[in-house]
Amino acid sequence: MRFIMAIFLSNRISAKTILLYMVSIFLIAKLFAQSPIDIGSISADSLNKIANEIRKQDPDSAFGIAQEALELSKLTKNSLQEAMAYKILGIIAIQSRNYEEAEIYLNNGINLIDSVNDGNNLANFYKILGILYAEQTDYPKAIKSMLSALNIYEKSNDFYGIVSCNDNLGILYKRLGKFEKSILHQKVAIQIIEMHDVEYDISNILHNMGVSYSEIGKIDSAIILLKKALYLSKKRDDQYAILITTGTIAATFATNNQLDSADIYYNSEMELALRLNNKSSMAINMINQGANAFRKNELIKAIDYVEEGMAILEEIGELREQYFGYQILRDIYIKQGDFTNAYFAFEKSVQINDSIFGIETQNKVTELEAKYESEKKEKKIELLNRENQINKLEIEKKRTNLWVSLVVASLVVLSLVFVILYSRKKQKVKQMMVLQKSQNKLLEMERKVLTTIIDTEDKERKRFAEDIHDGVGPLLSSIKLYLGEISSSEKEEQKQMIDYAKELTSEAIGNIRDISHNIMPGSLSENGLMESVHEFCEKIKFTKQLNINIENKIGNKRFGHSIELIIYRIIIELINNTLKHAKATAVNISFVKGDNLLEINYSDNGVGFDVEKLNDTGKKGIGLLNIKRRVASIDGKCDIKSEKGKGIEVKIKLAI
Asked: In which domain, by residue range, is 562 found?
């Protein structure tokens, strides 16, 4: 659901906008030319208005202008305009997802506004701060900020502000799953709109209320509100709102098992999505229609819908929706009894879930880096501000008395040296602390990855047990039943029962073979490591995606079942990484036996990567981490070398 940001100005382009934009270009040109702006020619208020007007179209330029407004308002000691500049900088930082900076800017603005006793602007700051916390999914803080804003708006009878805060509180409580509280705040918003004729988008409030009623099981009330929201959206010709609300109505009907009604709205949603060329909505609609067909037991139709939707999702790269799509496919195939495709769909959902986990981990690491850089930047700004203050003091003293100025200047220089030395020492200590915290967090992340791997393996064991129970158990029971009936049956029936028992026995043997092959390749236990690796590589070479050359200097030597299984999985993981990421055309693998030592060398001619950079930033791939852990589990050593454009070289040494 979109979060209502009533504090943002309209995005429509007017003559005034164009004029302000031209002025901003002039100011930006001055900034790049390093020419000071004439304070008398433009005010901080004008700069703030220009920055706010262009922040959506050109956030970088708006940021520079807002900073000029901030400096100008500090020089003129205009606390109100200084606060407004902080507000604009905070909004731009939210747009850019620089949440740490945004919070600093907004809190600075709140302190200034509080000092000038400007209630409405203070409420506006609290509302923006609430939006910032909501973007970070810190809903308790977001609610606290929104309630602070609402309290101020109620005291000043600012009805638009009251409506906006209640609407946003409704959305926040809905996200927390507190649907009754959500409905209560949205009802208050609607009452204020109707009593005081407030200009506000009521359709969005009705839509959110409908979703909340659906969540607490009041489907009839939900449908009434959603249809009213749809009517208002159509009345003002808001195509995107029509699309979203139509899909929500369809989903609500489907949840209540009113499948025919759901189909009607799903079809309407698809027509509009096609007209708007909204691929994301098309794909989600198809997956939802597939789920609806599944509920109707129309399994072939369900598969067609879901696969068509999944093709679009793969094209636009929406991983989360693909994950749900494969889960639906898994359930459909299980119901069909097609356990091979069900397993494939399950495996794809696990892979996508792992990718999502990797992306989220990457984002957390990036967030830590951004926080560190932000703190370092603040220290630099603080140091520069101190230097500026000292320089100003020095100039003033020189104008009054030359000799006194010389003495003061000497003291200032000594103080400056002391401050710089002290600040550097303090900064180094803080940097070491930040680095230690980052390393601790990375270790914690690695522990979580290991836990996830163990959990996944445990789930796989349980799944294989279920496959044996569900796939082989019923067949063996049926065979037993037939064998028990043979003795009491006539000859013709006995022959038929024996044939049935043979068919069931063959099917059971096939199921057991499939399950055992999923646990461990059959060729590994029968033919050994080298034969299994050759067999796998030949399959890859047959696809013509990759040319694999194997150099075998160990013959058919066996190393024990567990060691061979781990080495086999390491080779498979390396080849999979090459196929997924390296864009390589050739791979070389060598197995060399020394004195009580087995050496495995793996290399490809792919794009490569910066190993040092990965180690420095903590962005180590989960695949490479798994390989190193597997090698360590059999007391081996693993060395990975790679450079951009030079492929990868992996050297593994094992004591044998």
From this structure: 522-655
